[in-house]
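Why Fe2OG dioxygenase domain-containing protein? Reviewers of the renewal asked for a concrete example.
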Amino acid sequence: MAPTVTSVDASEPKVASIKTLADSDALTYVPSEYAFIMDPNDKGDANDPEHSIPIIDFVLLTSASPDERAQMIQKLGRACQEWGFFQVINHGVPESLMKEMIDACQRFFELPEEEKKEFHTKNLLDPIKCGTSFNVAIDKVRLWRDYLKVIAHPKFNSLYKPAGYSEVSLEFSKRTRAVATEILNGISESLGLEADYITNAMNWDRGCQILAANYYPACPQPDLAIGIPPHTDHGLVTLLIQNDMCGLEVKHNDQWVLVNAAPGAFIVNVGDQMQILTNDKYKSIWHRATVNNTATRISIAVPHGPALDTPALPIPELLEKEGEKAKYIGMTYEKFMELQASPAAYMMPCLDHLRVKDN
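Here is what the prediction returned.
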């Protein structure tokens, strides 16, 4: 069953952020403009071990032992094909740095609204932007979410406030990008290609990396609101961390699975550009962010994509190997992100707009 949404009533009061609304002592219900009602039978479940996302051991993925590396690359390929999601352990990024990054983002969200106003913008690719919901110009329902998005590559951008954010985000973005590079190398090899095939084809040296922090405060009626509705990610791969609160759900075999990652792990998912490259072999999977009535959840998603001027196209070597025709037309990464943020792709698969019609 599709979720029920309500249209935003222009007569209702507007708030600068969901944090402002949630901090109100008088808030005991979800205002109608935030009403997003899911099927009660469409809940995520993390208790069934058969529905736990695969675990990739980064040490084995980068091992000097050909046998250990080959086994983990094979497991990585299965995870991309069967799940589109996996978690990465033993990646070498200190848990202390991950926590510092989450704490720095929390301090940003806790700044007075007046101090955050200078980062409010409607431009998709501004180096730094913050706001609430998804796109208030096209949203049919407001999201229980504030966000901060900072482009960290190919040019590193940062905030001068709160104190310490710049230093922590620089180190975190470098370490995260190094992990993403090795994951892409492993994915390339899982497809029978040279390790650097995807990074070369996608102009990885100029690739776009975004630090996207999400703030989901406790909600008085969590069944009547949503943090982020079902969607796919636009890039090649996304790495995600979160505080101690769960809320990420993944669609697997027509069932929503609540992701309960190992401590210190990165949750990683395949993005739309990767699905295009592999001609649907590796899937960009629907996922969503739910809310709770207990405590604030903070997540930091780090999408890694091609260079903005680079289009993803099905890899010719894979088409020849599988005897397939290309299922997608080309579009630069920048245009693809613009499409995803447009009314044409609101709660719809963005990839459908690029799919070759006779397929």
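The two ends are 26 Å apart (CA to CA). This is the kind of structural detail the renewal will allow us to pursue systematically.
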